[in-house]
Amino acid sequence: MENISVAVVGAGIAGNFHCNALKQVYCTRVRLKTIVDVDTERAYDLLEKWGFQNATADYESVLQDPEIDLVCIALPTVLHADFAIKALNADKHVICEKPLTGYFGLPEEGFPAENTASKRKMCDSLLKDMSALRQAIDKSKAKFLYAETYMCFPNCASIAESVRTLNVRVLDIAVECSIHGSERDLIELRKHVGDSSLMRVAAYPLSSMLFGKQLEARIHDEDIYATSVSAEMGQKRADNSACAENFVNIAVTFSDGCKGVVYSCDKSYYDHTQGRMRNWIKSSFDNGYNSQNTITPADNVKLYFLGQEGYESAWRQTDWFNKYDADEAYNKYIIELNRFIGRVVKNRQGSSGFSHAYDCVKIIHAAYLSAEEGRCIYPTGNARQ
Ligand SMILES: NC(=O)c1ccc[n+]([C@@H]2O[C@H](COP(=O)([O-])OP(=O)(O)OC[C@H]3O[C@@H](n4cnc5c(N)ncnc54)[C@H](O)[C@@H]3O)[C@@H](O)[C@H]2O)c1
Q1: Which end of the chain is more exposed for a tag (fewer CB within 10 A), N or C?
Q2: How far, in Å, is the centroid of ligand 1 from the Cα of 148?
Q3: Residues contacting residue 137 through CB under 8 Å, at least 6 positions apart
Q4: What would the pLDDT profile of 131-164 be if each residue is shown by its tens digit?
Q5: Pocket test for ligand 1, best of 40, 45, 75 (most atoms within 8 A of CB)
């Protein structure tokens, strides 16, 4: 396949990131064919900004279009599985945003559903959703690629590089993703994302940890999987009652004995205590080698402000500041999209597909169950069952 024609579905924040990255794919020629959004004004904005040929609210027209090879799904999580299944049924490759799916509740459960629904019921419902998606993947001639961008930070890749070049084992791995969160109405957002901090934020570090272990398994040619999960989660501040939880700690033991820890918290708690963003990944290896990678706050660019008028209020004081490197955030999409499109073009699945997405969702829900029941959960099932 020399050229690839793409539809981006969802013209919001993630859709815009995908478009920016698609414009910078260098392994083949990418044609931005169609941008889809129910909000056609948004779709037309991105058509103009990125040079799509068509903008539409009608997803069916994308499915019917024989010229479209690949669909990027950048929709609210509640729609991911359904839109992905339809694209796969039409034999179109899919790049799907994270998290793969979630639990969105029943009307009688109130909102957010995680506060009232039985976690066991949530887990059962998720596994059912994923089984439908797996069947569509199995039947389709097309590929399913899971867009979990955190693993594309060069820092995360350096762990796999260490395993490969030094032929070592990862003994423990700790990852944090704590962010300021969305500026948008959280209640509205959560109706469509179906969750709170665990799904929206902790999904990033968790999936990067799983991805790292998956790469290690491949390098050593063996199966490595999570054998137990225990988690704590809750409200660190009581000022955000719409939130099911705003902090999460998850401990995972892997079949090779490796211990993983995920820390995560968002908006209401984090804003008041520790600054706006903290992302890092640390690991120890069995040869005594250790790696410690800070993603944000980045400390490679420092700015000094004299406190002049005209700067945003937070920057009025005189001091040194670490600059948030937005390029770095964009870069991870560019790395990801290049990697994914390269696989589609060369007809190779690569490592971040359904089984990675499946493992991530499985552990997220084992974590919910563990926190609810106050015990360790031993997850069963794998992506092929
Ligand atoms: N990987 C990352 O770094 C990252 C960052 C942000 C968001 N995300 C993920 O991307 C997804 C989208 O998040 P977002 O922040 O861009 O949301 P968003 O609300 O900004 O954009 C979603 C868009 O989908 C459109 N939409 C809703 N229903 C639709 C339908 N039936 N058909 C067509 N369009 C429809 C909305 O009008 C909106 O424009 C979420 O799953 C989120 O978790 C990932």
Answers
A1: C
A2: 14
A3: 88, 144, 353, 354
A4: 889 999 999 999 999 887 776 666 667 777 788 8
A5: 75
Q: Give, for ligand 1, the residue of 13, 95, 191 to mutate: max count of ligand atoms closer than 8 Å to Cβ.
A: 13
Is 97 a pocket residue for ligand 1 (Cβ < 6 Å)? yes
Q: What is the pLDDT of residues 290-307, one digit of tens each?
A: 888 877 776 666 766 655
pTM (2 d.p.) = 0.83
36 Cβ below 6 A of ligand 1: yes
Angle between helix 203-220 and helix 354-373 axes, rounded to 10 deg: 120
List, in order of start, the domains of the chain with CATH numbers: 3-147 (3.40.50.720), 149-322+353-373 (3.30.360.10)
